[in-house]
Amino acid sequence: MLIRAWHLYVIRLRLERLALSRAQFIEALRARNIGASVHFIPLHLHPYYRQTYGYRAADCPVASAAYEQILSLPLYARMTPEDVERVIEAVVDIVQRYRA
Q: In this structure, what DSSP letter does residue 64 have?
């Protein structure tokens, strides 16, 4: 199934191939003035579902694993081609620099 979210550009990090965590990757982008964040938390990890139904990360291992690997890159209407190139270059550079 293909799901589209035109307002987000989500990438998946192969953390087993990197010598840094997702949080450190986001910080490395921020150090270059590129905002990135995590926009989606799987339902079973939201406080309501944890408290009401007792869900844990291990209850949905695929969703939990995907959640730990994804982040959203900047995407907005006024992004210039130069902005896009700067984000791409930063991601590529960080991946190359921290390749395990």
A: H
